[in-house]
Specification:
heterotrimer, A alpha/beta (371), B mainly alpha (296), C mainly alpha (297), A: 371 residues, alpha/beta, 7-stranded mixed β-sheet, elongated, C: 297 residues, mainly alpha, two-stranded antiparallel sheet
């Protein structure tokens, strides 16, 4: 009986070793970093958008002479929209591709476990899209480029109060991100004197949200505050329209994410806020280059952060003159002192969090535009 | 690269434990348990919750095993005259209910984002050796479980189970309490699987609701059926084959350069194809069960 | 109140046709076909692609039903007939493999991103406090018509009688001169076509996505089992019961218990509610709610 296991074992391991060896040889000529993006699943639109930004950044770096005199590449892995696949992807990046820096993912519920693993392995993690406040406490090798939801919620609460809403109903995804936004927004809104009459956390991946919407409508709110991932948001928005709920105003936290897959006629008239997308001259140049390469503009606000993260990593590796994780980390701290990114000036504080991340007030009028 | 191999074998070992647990129920007792992964999920979550509450890994594993055995007992008692295929669907429903609870009761299970930062065992050891030590532990547990289960299979209990599977009325006539046999088989399978779940939680440093999706049970079923339903060594071969196919796909993806959707489809399709081919042409599996034949 | 009825009807019509198909075929082949819900998903994707290729919606749906029916027939002839020789358990596991293959094929061809039908947007019709869109009206109407037609077929035609005879006692029916194999083939085709129709209509509102089949698995099986596997109209009644439970559970306002104006059970638990009903039914009436057969105790 044991004989048959032994006969299979060497065969399987030999096959894998050969594949890996061929693979490793290829990796020597390029300097690599890693990215875990949601290329499949509910957030595939965002993942693809960010992948384009990463591609643009890689081209720019190689145009400028590459890194340490060699070609620069980003190994992109799919998170599949769930933490287990993301963890496996991160594991592959760390143990097979041996990258010093990994950026990603998108949803806080996926970024948190993945980043914790990366920190445990001593690899640098740069957060480019997740907003849970727990990102701040990830650890010594975790950097963050985007505004976390404590700042975001304060911004949204002030904005919605200023728009005149006093009694609102909220819906958000039932995960780290959604729970953080729902509770945080409620806290900030109630501080201003408002009331969140219904708070619904929807489970991702359902094909209908009618029941959730009906539960929310029962409380007759002044406005509906929502945040939802692209494809689910498309269903949510359409069903809200079909249930006649669009007679009340709809405000989206992270507007471009929530509307990334919603058809224009349904999205019309929505208001919202978003993390700042592009800033200043560097931002404008980036937006133009993006449109030139991909024949269409950016669909979401996260691309700039990914672009900045890749450029900063390349700069850090060059500065450190090495791809050892510890050296790259130290160099990244140095690079992050007044770096001019496409999302604005980037300076890290003592906890490697970005100081004064940008936010924007927006509305949908054919596309997402500033208010 | 060696890191990746160590990792693949560790995961194969953990799945092997789960497959052995399923083999006890489906292979020897003929019980179509389609909610098998719930036992592993209980093990993983018990470990996570106990550690978060300040307990030790051992306590967590014990609690997990205990909970899984309780669930196994309940599931076995379900339905007096329930036909085997109906019972299979009921077990699927129970696993889905548990997964829904895990996704929604954030105060207990961390909700959709699960419980993270579970300490990996052997964290004190330097980098390559902690993984090797973990692999050694997993392989040791698999070896002990496989040998123990083989002893059981060849003993009275195993023979009674096989009799129950083939000729339940004869077994009842001979004085076996079918209910009790069924219950004991499921509880034993549940215990082994919960242990695997605990090990998985330590390995990934994470316990989440997507550990309990139905497709995980189907994956383990495939491993058991391909290798040989009812045969311990067959099950282990099945696990290695399926795990090899599963791990080869990301490399093929990088080598041939196709997209992640296709890679995911290929993984699933490969497993389905192998299972179907096995069922059509060799339904006993690669290493069929050895039944003693009494000479005529 | 009216919205409550509308919601129940909508959810019931989502499940009815697919549960009907499942039950119909079970009566003849006697194994639960897990791949059946994936046929519905296949129908949905086919409709989407046909429409994207320019075929008008109704034609696309009809064509995709026919293709799905043919596919079901092919699966029966090539796979399940052989596997059934080894017993229903092996056939059930085989249906699991077929389900995986269908999902894998669709993921490879269509990608994992859901495909929404871009139907013309129109404001919903309002009746008292209920709102329903044209598409939803058409869906429920079509389902209802089909159910009526099927009942007429089953109880008032020779073909229907033959089906019922075959389902209750195959050997006797065969011996009485009914061509069991031919009827089985026709029923397979029919159940596949009906599943494809159900899936296509469901996809009109939710889009064709890879989880369409899996999300339907437990509710459809619950409906079919509640009605008694092999009793197609019972499956429809089972579907109605499941829809009713889901709607009641999510609309009950528990606010009075918590002192708040509104408090509802999280919607995620409605799946659990249907499964609990299924479990209870299996415990007390394992052969379905409408079971009248005398069995040995």
């Amino acid at each position: 009986m044991l004989f048959s296991i032994r006969s299979v074992l060497p065969g399987a391991s030999l096959a894998m070793a050969l594949a890996g060896a061929g693979f490793a040889a290829h990796a020597q000529e390029t300097v690599q970093m890693g990215a875990v993006l949601s290329l499949t699943g509910a957030n595939a639109t965002v993942g693809e958008d960010v992948r384009r930004a990463v591609g643009l950044a890689v081209d720019k770096v190689n145009e400028q002479g590459g890194v340490l005199g060699r070609k620069f590449a980003v190994v992109i892995e799919d998170s599949g929209g769930n933490p287990t696949t993301a963890l496996n992807a991160a594991r592959k990046l760390v143990s097979v591709d041996k990258v010093p820096v990994v950026i990603g993912e998108y949803s806080s519920g996926i970024t948190l476990p993945m980043a914790q693993y990366l920190v445990k392995e001593g690899v640098t993690h740069i957060n480019i899209a997740s907003t849970s406040v727990k990102i701040k406490d990830l650890g010594a090798t975790a950097f963050n480029l985007i505004g976390l939801e404590n700042l975001g919620n304060r911004f949204s609460a002030a904005d919605t109060w200023a728009l005149g809403y006093r009694k609102v109903a909220m819906i958000a995804p039932n995960n780290a991100y959604g729970q953080g936004v729902a509770h945080g927004f409620k806290e900030e809104f109630e501080k201003l004197g408002g009331q969140v009459v219904t708070e619904v956390l929807y489970t991702a991946g359902q094909s209908t949200y009618r029941r959730e919407l009906q539960q929310m409508s029962r409380s007759n709110p002044d406005a509906y505050i929502y945040t939802a991932y692209g494809q689910e948001s498309a269903v949510l928005n359409r069903e809200a329209f079909e249930l006649g709920l669009r007679k009340a105003p709809w405000y989206a936290i992270l507007l471009s994410m929530s509307l990334s897959d919603t058809p224009a006629e349904i999205a019309k008239g929505q208001l919202g806020m978003e993390v700042g997308s592009v800033y200043g001259d560097a931002g404008k140049a980036y937006a133009a280059a993006f449109a030139a390469k991909y024949k269409e503009g950016m669909k979401t606000s996260y691309t700039g952060y990914a672009y900045d993260a890749v450029m900063m990593t390349a700069a850090a590796i060059n500065k450190a003159k090495s791809t050892q994780p510890a050296a790259v980390q130290a160099a990244l701290k140095e690079v992050g002192k007044g770096y001019v990114g496409v999302t604005g000036p980037i300076t890290f504080d003592a906890d490697r969090q970005r100081i004064d991340p940008p936010y924007a007030k927006l509305k949908y009028d054919g596309k997402v535009v500033p208010r | 690269m060696s890191d990746f191999l160590i990792s693949s074998f560790t995961i194969a070992g953990i799945y092997a434990l789960m497959a052995l647990g399923l083999n006890l129920q489906a292979g020897w007792s003929g019980l179509l348990n389609f909610g098998h992964i719930a036992f592993a999920g209980l093990g993983a979550y018990a470990t996570g919750i106990v550690i978060q509450a300040g307990g030790s890994g051992w306590t967590g594993a014990l609690v997990g095993v205990g909970l899984a055995m309780a669930l196994g007992w309940a599931v076995a008692r379900l339905g007096r005259q329930l036909g085997s295929d109906y019972w299979g669907i009921a077990t699927l429903a129970i696993a889905e209910i548990l997964r829904t609870v895990a996704t929604n009761e954030g105060w207990l299970t961390g909700g959709a984002q699960g419980i993270s930062a579970i300490p990996s065992l052997f964290d004190g050891l330097p980098r390559p050796w902690n993984a090797v030590a973990f692999l050694a532990l997993v392989l040791a547990v698999v070896a002990v479980a496989a040998l123990a289960l083989r002893r059981v299979a060849n003993g009275r209990f195993g023979r009674a189970l096989r009799l129950m599977r083939e000729e339940p009325q004869l077994a009842a006539c001979m004085g076996y309490d079918l209910k009790s046999l069924k219950t004991r088989a499921i509880m034993a399978g549940a215990a082994v699987t919960a242990l695997a779940g605990s090990l998985y939680a330590h390995y990934m440093s994470f316990a989440g609701p997507d550990y309990m999706v139905a497709s995980e049970t189907f994956l383990i079923w495939t491993m058991v059926m391909i290798g040989g339903l009812g045969n311990t060594a067959g099950v282990l071969v099945g696990v290695l084959l399926v795990q090899a196919a599963y791990s080869a796909v990301p490399f093929a993806k990088d080598f041939f350069g196709f997209g992640s959707d296709l890679a995911g489809a290929l993984r699933l399709g490969l497993i389905g194809l192998i299972l179907l081919a096995c069922l059509l042409w060799r339904s006993e599996g690669l290493i069929p069960e050895k039944l003693r034949k009494i000479p005529a | 109140m009216l919205q409550f009825l509308v919601d129940t009807a909508l959810r019931a019509s989502d499940l009815a046709l697919i549960a009907l198909g499942l039950s119909m075929v079970y009566g003849l082949v006697k194994f639960p076909n897990i791949a059946h819900v994936q046929y519905a998903m296949l129908g949905a994707y086919l409709t989407f692609f046909l429409r994207a290729a320019g075929v008008p919606l109704v034609g696309a749906i009809l064509l995709s039903c026919a293709v799905t029916g043919l596919f079901t027939l092919a699966m029966h002839l090539l796979v399940f007939r052989r596997l059934l020789r080894s017993g229903p358990a092996i056939a059930m596991i085989g249906s699991l493999a077929v389900a995986m293959l269908i999902v894998a094929a669709l993921q490879g061809v269509a990608g994992s991103f859901p495909r929404m039908f871009d139907l013309p947007l129109s404001a919903p019709h309002e009746f008292a406090d209920a709102r329903i869109t044209t598409t939803q009206l058409l869906t429920v109407g079509t389902t209802g018509l089909l159910l009526v037609g099927f009942s007429l077929l089953l109880f008032f035609t020779r073909a229907g009688r033959a089906m019922r005879a075959l389902a209750s006692n195959r050997a006797l029916a065969d011996a009485s001169g009914l061509n069991a194999e031919r009827i089985t083939r026709v029923v397979n085709f029919g159940s596949g076509a009906v599943a494809g129709l159900g899936g296509s209509m469901l996809a009109l509102s939710t889009g064709a996505h890879l989880n369409l089949g899996h999300d339907l698995l437990l509710p459809v099986f619950a409906a079919a089992i509640l009605g008694g596997l092999g009793n197609p109209l019972g499956a429809v009644a089972g579907g109605l019961l499941i829809a009713l439970t889901e709607t009641v559970v999510t609309n009950l306002n528990f606010g009075f218990l918590f002192g708040k104006p509104v408090a509802f059970l999280p919607v995620a638990y409605i799946g659990a509610a249907s499964f609990l009903i299924l479990l209870l039914a299996l415990l007390f009436k394992p052969y379905g709610l409408f079971d009248r057969q005398v069995r040995r105790v």
